[in-house]
Structure formats: structure tokens, C-alpha cells
Specification:
The chain has 194 residues and is α/β, with parallel strands linked by helices. It is built from 5 helices and 7 strands, in the order ββαββαβαβαβα. It is 30% helix and 22% strand.
């Protein structure tokens, strides 16, 4: 997909703040610092629309990005970040859970994992949670450029086994450095928009 326009339209913390539109939405979940912002920026051909930070836990709201007036990306707070208080983590958890379980416009979740490491306990929990609520999941394995191509399949296998990946779920190798996987990701997203 050629992205002609992309803007952040709202940062929401509760349903009354979600955009009032029936456009399809794709939410991005993943550990803090796994590369969600870099993924968004690469997909949208923008250098810094989504703010990347060396400090994990930067995203603390649901950030809705409107793309080509056709769909929204929804960036949710990263999980597994220790420097946030337990009560704050619980509040995020509730906010994310409310969005995921009640938003009809949500077409699929993009679960962002780091290809270099086996998915964390939190990744597995998030995947199981999404499967439990029958939310379609697309796994985006980022940082592929950090691993030699000859080892990609080995790392993909570890990711699939750790998540106990449903054979019907798509996993996409991605690199925000090289653009690897970008076209595939758009084509998979497109299939959910029909």
C-alpha cells in the first residue's frame, strides 16, 4: 500500500476518547523497546511519526494513527517494563484489555516480537489472551537485519514453538532498517480489510 497520509489523531485512555469512525483498526502489542514505533514509522514511510525512545515505557496511552483516511494503527503501551509502578501497570492492562475485548473496529492484533530472542513470558501471555478472545493475531518478528539470513528459519522456529503458534496465524520477518517484510505486512493487513 502506498501511504499518502498518516497522522496521529488521538491518544486515548478510555473508550469515550476512541475515534468515532468505522474504519478498520490494527493494534500493535509488544514488549517495551521491541521496536513498535520503528515498525510504525517504517510501514508509514515516516522518520519520526511514532516517537522512538531509548527509554522503554514511553507509550502510556492508546495512540491512534489515521492512515490514508482508510484505517487506523493503534499503538498500545508496551508491557514487561519494570520501572513502572504495579498500579500503573494494572491500569494499562485494564485499558488495553478494555480496548481489545470491546472494540468492534479491531480487525487484528500485530504482536511484535524480537526475532533475536525467544518470545518472553509476557509475549506468550498476550498471545494466549488474544487467542482466548478469538482476536486474529499477526506475529511481526522484528530486527531480522540483526541476524544472518542463514539463521532466520532457526529463529522463526523458536518463536513459533515458544508461542505454540496456531498454524493458521501468520508470522512475518521484519526489519525497520532494511524494509524486509514491509510489503508482506501490508498485503496481510489488506486481507483483513476486505
Amino acid at each position: 500500500m502506498k501511504v499518502n497520509s498518516a497522522e496521529i489523531v488521538i491518544s486515548a485512555v478510555r473508550p469515550s476518547q476512541y475515534p468515532e469512525s468505522n474504519l478498520p483498526e490494527f493494534a500493535l502489542a509488544g514488549r517495551s523497546n521491541v521496536g513498535k514505533s520503528s515498525f510504525i514509522n517504517k510501514m508509514l514511510n515516516r522518520k519520526s511519526l511514532a516517537r522512538t525512545s531509548s527509554k522503554p515505557g514511553k507509550t502510556q496511552t492508546l495512540n491512534f494513527y489515521l492512515i490514508n483516511e482508510m484505517l487506523h494503527f493503534v499503538d498500545v503501551p508496551g508491557y514487561g517494563y519494570a520501572k513502572v509502578s504495579k498500579s500503573e501497570r494494572e491500569a494499562w492492562g485494564k485499558m488495553i484489555e478494555t480496548y481489545i475485548t470491546s472494540r468492534e473496529q479491531l480487525k487484528a492484533m500485530l504482536l511484535i516480537v524480537d526475532l533475536r530472542h525467544p518470545p518472553s513470558k509476557d509475549d506468550v501471555m498476550m498471545y494466549d489472551f488474544l487467542k482466548h478472545y478469538e482476536i486474529p493475531v499477526i506475529i511481526i518478528a522484528t530486527k531480522a537485519d540483526k541476524i544472518p539470513k542463514s539463521k532466520w528459519q532457526k529463529h522463526l522456529k523458536i518463536t513459533k514453538e515458544t508461542l505454540d503458534l496456531d498454524p493458521d496465524d501468520t508470522i512475518i520477518l521484519f526489519s525497520s532498517e532494511t524494509g524486509e517484510g514491509k510489503d508482506k505486512a501490508w498485503s496481510v493487513l489488506g486481507s483483513f480489510m476486505k
